[in-house]
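Hi there, hope your week has been kind to you so far. Do you reckon you could talk me through the fold, stretch by stretch? Thanks so much in advance, here it is.
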Amino acid sequence: MKKLFILAVITLLISCNNSHTSKNSNNTTGTTKITLEDIWGTTFSTNRMNALNSMNGDYYSLLNNDKNGNSSVDQYSYISLKKIATIVDGKSLGNLDQFESYSFNNDETKLILGKDLQKVYRRSTKGTYYTFSIGSKKVRLIGKNIQEPTFSPDSKKVAYAKNNNLFILNLGTNKTTQITKDGKYNHIINGTTDWVYEEEFGFVRAFEWSNDSKFIAFLRFDESKVREFSMGITGTKLYPSQHVFKYPKAGEDNAKVSLHMYSLNTRNTKKINLGAYEYIPRIKWSTKDEILIATTLNRRQNDLKLHKVSAVKTNSILLLNEKDAAYVSVKDDLTFLDDNSFIWTSEKDGYNHIYHYDFNGKLINQITKGDWEVTKYYGYNEDKKTIYYQSVENGSINRGIYSISLNGENKKILSSNIGSNTASFSDNLNFFINTHSTTEVPPVYSLYSAEGEMIKVIKDNTNLQKKLTDYKISKKEFSTININGNELNMWMIKPVDFDAQKEYPLLMFQYSGPGSQQVANRWNGTNDYWHQLLAQEGMIIVCVDGRGTGLKGRDFKKITQKELGKFEVEDQIAAAKKLAERTYIDKNNIGIWGWSYGGFMSTNCLLKGNDIFTTAIAVAPVTSWRFYDTVYTERYMQTPQENASGYDDNSPINYAEKLQGNYLLVHGTGDDNVHVQNSRRMINALVAANKPFDIAMYPDRAHGIRKGKNTRLHLYNKMTAFLKENLITN
């Protein structure tokens, strides 16, 4: 199946101006006020490119729908950007006139089409899938309520998962073979991942065809000992119901995961011995037909191994072992060259860089070097011996696209525009579509050659840019602030009519999670427009990326190990106190807000920083890392059994008696990620301490609190009113 190239969705608004005192010099001249209806309507929508599927040669495809809803897969040229053919026309497919997904086989003579897709969790879906032959125009049903159908490399078969088992459909004989038979909900999963793997390791399909189509490697999850989590569903019926699923909380049993090899010739399945491990977060075939690479991690996630697995002999040998005092990140950068040497990314020298190893695991050379981070590896062109990547070489708040030779020489910047640059490369790496934005320039989509020549602008957002000149919008001011011995990146939004002789309430926004970044030079997200609205009301908004956030090297990021919430909170409190020294900041009206990890932070800051923070909003917060999943939490905290003080000393539940200011707690009761249990336990702690607070619960809403008519509008109305009452007017 071809790799799906998704153009990046730009989410945040940042500015590069460092002025702190000038009046009106950094603002638009518009007079129209931003409203919440503007934000949650279509007023500020950006003109975006559709997700595209790179094809063989200099072509790509798009899934389109006509005015009647009929679907089609159309082929386009990278060179001309014009449509050159319709590959699939839904109007001619009867009951398949509408479909929601598609994927090609290797030689692009067949497709898999999906319809009636139903979301399971964040990344997983079930649906009805068909094969379509371009030559014969024949449509064939693969199955209903199935997951992850995938062509074999020789295009003669399709493998898929259904009801926690694996199946193979022979397209020649139309015969289906069931590979596994022990699949059972909440007990055994074959070929797809469990909840925590999907959420934290970021994949659903847990089976892979060998290059010669003779073997299928797959993961088996034994969830029998994983404890169940029961989530109440309010619904619309007379009686509510329960959604029960396996969720391993920190320190509890994980699913027992094993690697298996199925031979299509013998129809036998063998379990592969990988030694001692807790997780198998990746499996990938090398360029040798019979050699699979399996990645394993120990439970602490600080000991990563790559294993060479022989499909024929069903044994394994160690290829590479990487350790870290804190943790080793799992990535998708492993790339095998024609000679079976491979490219790997690692932060073992203190920054994330690209390395080249031979097939025995011996280091050939470190390709990129410097006190900066490679943020994305795009691919390797074998003919040109050239690697393409994204990095922060031009400053940690920016992103640039670069090429470099395999030997580490001839480095070249391919996108010279300052700001955020994200590339979507063609399958042959001859072209890429660059998405560029800054705080002042909305996304511009341009076609580039792999040599960095800008061929043409495909799409821009000049109309949006012009529209915004009518609104009262302040530019973001980039700077740094020295906190606890570190120069931390910061942005600030001031009211349009800012006067340095006046005092303004301050609202701090942050996320602060490990390796994250909120201070970046890129275009608006919805929260940025909300911050502009608050600035219109007379507030100053500030964001500071403290210790533990990303793109400043390993030591800066991993200082929070075993102490999530300690250094991050210290930095936000210290930043608030330092900002309060500025004459135009009202030191008696300083608030903080955040979502998820940011809600954990805002709650802790209000409690532990009650001498500076007067107001906080926490949306879907973690209130104890004991309640969160194993993979994420233990990566940074180890288990509660090993590190009880790290969990408890930084849990806001244990400091409820310190609440002195105004606190709004928000959660969706259908949150399968950060369970509403977190907020309910916080509520109980505050009640026990006899502390007043405000609360908003959204029935059956997930972590993003989006589903349902006017949900987001209602939420932001609530938060706006809370700030007006408790921060702005005080």
Summary: The radius of gyration is 26 Å.
